[in-house]
Design a protein that fits this description.
Helix content is 43%, strand content 19%. With 318 residues, the chain is an alpha/beta fold. It has two domains: 183 residues, Rossmann fold (3-Layer(aba) Sandwich); 113 residues, 3-Layer(aba) Sandwich (Rossmann fold), CATH 3.40.50.460. Helix 4 links the parallel strand 4 and strand 5. It binds 6-O-phosphono-beta-D-fructofuranose. 6-O-phosphono-beta-D-fructofuranose binds next to loops.
Length: 318
């Protein structure tokens, strides 16, 4: 029987995390549960940073970016001894179940905890949209909007100066932000892990673009190429002068979009429902526009390449 539930956010923050915390809290309270917020992710869990939440604790949070609970990356959580500290704290507070909101790293920690006997449900949140098992992770659309707003502005100045703008976006190992923003802004070139990088092809595309327009846009996923070097190569080998912009952490902030708020709210409520149904070691997912739960283990093994699927669908636009 579940009476007390704790909620935490872990890994990189994502806009919409607060809406998920709010939904877990409000739906938990509605179902007669006591709800505790854990500050600073798995680190706070190990250190016992718990606070009892009420309806008011999550008031006016739905429109806020970041996470009101704070977050950390804690690689040490892979160690059994570190997780024992977390379990000790959960027992100290008499917590019966945990909702962990985050990406793959959060999922691995949650799975390990569930194998040690803790009842856990996870909710996917990552601007990269790279969480296994789900078509959508909270925060992706807001980050996408931020990128598009920035690129639209860069296009104005690029076009005025007859330049090529290179924009580096986040995504770690996943090109979904790059491909989707590339589609949305009509980029000449997208460079990401899934599509690869070939300098000659890039120069050819930019040279072609220079014949018909006053600017070109290149979107690159972080860690793929040195964008300043790329800008130099474009300046030297095409009619366009080039400038490089790294968007960086600005992509992680800002007010969540309505879509992120709604999906996060639905997912938060689903997490509580799943716990009350006796589910454990599961993650909330969006599959074919439905919110479902499936085993975390299965989600972590999911390597569907939805990014390439999306790219192939729109390839004729490039
Ligand atoms: O996972 C989200 C993300 O923003 C990635 O896109 C990026 O590579 C990483 O986090 C950056 O992490 P940090 O904020 O720890 O530098």
């Amino acid at each position: 029987m579940i009476r007390k539930v704790a909620v935490l956010t872990s890994g990189g923050d994502a806009p919409g995390m607060n809406a998920a915390i709010r939904a877990v809290t409000r739906s938990g309270l509605k179902m007669g549960l006591e709800v505790f917020g854990v500050y600073d992710g798995y680190r706070g869990l190990c250190e016992g940073k718990f606070e009892k939440l009420n309806r008011r604790s999550v008031s006016e949070t739905i429109a806020k970016g970041g996470t009101i609970l704070g977050t950390t990356r804690l690689p040490e959580f892979e160690q059994y001894e570190t997780r024992l500290l977390a379990i000790e704290q959960l027992e100290n507070y008499g917590i019966d179940a945990l909702v962990a909101i985050g990406g793959d790293g959060t999922y691995r920690g949650a799975l390990a905890l569930s194998k040690m006997g803790v009842k856990v449900v996870t909710i996917p949140a990552s601007i990269d949209n790279d969480v296994g098992g789900t078509d959508y992770a909270i925060g992706f659309e807001t980050a996408l909007n931020t990128i598009i707003e920035a690129v639209d502005k860069l296009r104005d100045t690029s076009s005025s100066h007859r330049r090529c703008s290179i924009i580096e976006v986040m995504g770690r190992n996943c090109g979904e932000l790059a491909i989707t923003s590339g589609l949305a802004v009509g980029a000449e070139v997208v460079i990401c892990k899934e599509l690869g990088f070939n300098l000659e092809d890039v120069l050819e595309n930019i040279n072609q673009a220079s014949k018909v327009k006053r600017h070109a846009i290149v979107i690159v996923t972080e860690k793929m190429v040195d964008i300043n070097e790329l800008a130099k190569a474009i300046t030297e080998n095409t009619p366009f002068e080039s400038r490089a912009t790294i968007l960086g952490h600005v992509q992680r902030g800002g007010k969540p979009t309505p879509h992120d708020r709604v999906i996060a709210s639905l997912m938060g409520a689903k997490a509580v429902e799943a716990l009350l149904e006796g589910q454990n070691g599961v993650c909330v997912c969006m599959v074919d526009n439905k919110i479902i739960v499936r085993p975390i283990e299965e989600a972590l093994q999911d390597n569907r390449n939805t990014v390439l699927e999306k790219y192939n669908k729109f390839k004729m636009l490039w």
